[in-house]
Amino acid sequence: MKSEFVRVGDRISEEIIKISGLNSEDDPKSMGRKEAEKLIEAFRKVDLLPPPVECLSPIGEKIIMKSLMERFSPEFVYATTRKPKVYSGHPFLIEVGIAYGGNIKGERATLLRYANKIPLLYQQSGCALTQVAESINWKNYGLNQAKSELPASPCVILIHLASTNIPYISESKEAVASIPEIMEEIRLALQDCGRKLKEYLERKKSIQKRKRKENELMRLIPLLADKISEIVEKERVDPNRVIARIVGSVYVSREINENRSKIIVANHSKSRKRFRIYEIVERTTKKWELDLSPDEVMEIEYELNGKLVNKKPLIEGIDEVIGGEIIGTPSSYNEDS
């Protein structure tokens, strides 16, 4: 077994022999049907290492995401590459990418099918890649869908099968046959992408709800602040800080005194926030990386050696900020709940 099978060493071969109940000294040529069945059953019970990927040619998650971004300009994109598996002795791996919204138009999802980096343009309905994509319940991931069809939403789904032996349904090589092992891997990859899309859509919905609340408070709080300041005859409170406390956002403000600038950052949310702050002074960009616990306040002071270009401090890494200007979308860099 060690010489004829890939990535089967002493430990795995001994485990297979132990489960099968056979003798390691037996000659495979002398085995009967019953012994062969025991050996096959033992192989199924042992956790074998995945086959090497040197013989496969994956596209890669970064290239898939970059290609979808450049071609469709979506608001969300994600890609995943599954670990290599085997069907009938042939190694294969599945890659899936999904793009949603942005400049993607249409009432039905577009499916892009690839086999060893070659696009499959015809016989889409008879292809296993299509069948699995249509079998997924996309409603669970926030997309509209009629029964057993692709999502009725503006999105693009890319599925790539890389293998040493693509199981085409015919010599025309336009569709992939329904191999259970391959279809299961496609299903798992699509579900992974669906979960990421659902997280994004729920986050987007939450941000929109929060934004409506902030806009209403922005309209009322300044008026209340002016009236209260007038009644108590004290300095007017910054309305943005009050709103940040109410909605649970990060508050950012800037104070300039002659040639010194001070940025005040307060985390009024209930979770830890990690993000970057940028200031552009003339042709120089200053950057600070912050990591704030709930209710933590930090002050950043620096010397102004020229004209300040940006009107508000530039924020990258979070989307719940009052008083700053957001320049980047959230990523795994800043999520730490």
The SS-based structural class is alpha+beta
CATH-derived architecture of the largest domain: 2-Layer Sandwich
Number of helices: 6
- Give me the CATH fold name of the largest domain: Ribosomal Protein S5, domain 2
CATH class of the largest domain: Alpha Beta
Overall morphology? elongated
The percent range for helix content is 25-40%
How much is the average pLDDT?
Answer: 84
Measured between the Cα atoms of the first and last residue, the distance is: 48 Å
Number of strands: 14
List low-confidence stretches. 329-337
- The percent range for strand residues is 25-35%
Number of domains: 3
Global Rg? 29 Å
Helix-strand pattern? HHHEEEEEHEHHEEEEEEEE
Characterize the biggest β-sheet.
Answer: 6 strands, mixed
Could you please describe the fold and organization of this structure?
With 337 residues, the protein is α+β, with helices and mostly antiparallel strands. The chain folds into three domains: 36 residues; 142 residues, Ribosomal Protein S5, domain 2 (2-Layer Sandwich), CATH 3.30.230.10; 89 residues, Immunoglobulins (Immunoglobulin-like, Sandwich), CATH 2.60.40.10. Helices cover 31% and strands 25% of the residues. The chain is built from six helices and 14 strands. The strands form three sheets. Strands 1, 2, 3, 4, 5 and 6 form a six-stranded mixed beta sheet that branches. A hairpin with a 2-residue loop joins strand 9 and strand 10. Helix 1 crosses helix 2, helix 4 crosses helix 5 and helix 5 packs across helix 6. It is elongated, with a radius of gyration of 29 Å. The protein starts with 9 loop residues before the first helix and ends in an 11-residue tail after the last strand.
